[in-house]
């Protein structure tokens, strides 16, 4: 089971990857939205913002998200680490229910480019 620190490092790597992206991916993440990532097996939630193509983590709190972020992710820590490492395909994980993504319709359409 991935630790909280490993999950934070994975989010930092994802942020770096998004910041260095080009083309459709860069356009998909050029949003300014609140973001939460609930690590279900650790029952911890990272909260922050997707801003300027980067993920900025502001806080780590126990339990599910206390407020409803504009973009909400939920998955196990192992799945987060595997996604960022390229060992797990997001589309397959989302379709199978291993990863939950909730957002407004327009944001989902833009984020679809990441799949």
What name is given to the CATH topology?
Nonspecific Lipid-transfer Protein, Chain A
- Supply the CATH class: Alpha Beta
State the secondary-structure class.
alpha+beta
Main sheet overview: 5 strands, mixed
Per CATH, the superfamily is SCP2 sterol-binding domain
CA radius of gyration is 13 Å
The portion of residues forming beta strands comes to: 25-35%
Give the integer mean of the pLDDT values: 91
Query: What is the string of SSEs from the N terminus onward?
Result: HHEEEEHHEH
* Tertiary shape: globular
CATH architecture call:
2-Layer Sandwich
Strand arrangement within the widest β-sheet reads: 3-2-1-4-5
Q: Work out the count of structural domains.
A: 1
Helix content: 25-40%
How many H/I helical runs?
5
Low-confidence stretches: none
Total beta strands: 5
Distance between the termini: 25 Å
Architecture overview:
The protein has 115 residues and is an alpha+beta fold. It has a single domain, classed as Nonspecific Lipid-transfer Protein, Chain A, CATH 3.30.1050.10. Helices cover 39% and strands 30% of the residues. The chain is built from 5 helices and 5 strands. It has helices at residues 4-19, 23-28, 77-85, 90-96, 105-111; strands at 32-39, 44-51, 54-62, 71-75, 100-103. The protein has a 5-stranded mixed β-sheet with strand order 3-2-1-4-5. β2 (44-51) and β3 (54-62) form a beta hairpin. The longest helix has 16 residues, at 4-19.
């Amino acid at each position: 089971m991935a630790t909280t620190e490993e999950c934070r490092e994975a989010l930092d790597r994802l942020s770096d990857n998004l910041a260095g992206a080009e083309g459709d991916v860069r356009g998909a993440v050029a949003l300014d939205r609140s973001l939460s990532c609930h690590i279900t097996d650790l029952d911890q939630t990272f909260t922050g913002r997707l801003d300027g193509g980067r993920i900025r983590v502001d806080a780590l709190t126990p339990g599910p998200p206390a407020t409803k972020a504009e973009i909400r992710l939920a998955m196990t820590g192992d799945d987060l680490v595997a996604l960022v490492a390229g060992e797990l395909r997001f589309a397959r994980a989302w379709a199978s229910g291993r990863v939950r993504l909730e957002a407004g319709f327009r944001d989902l359409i833009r984020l679809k480019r990441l799949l």
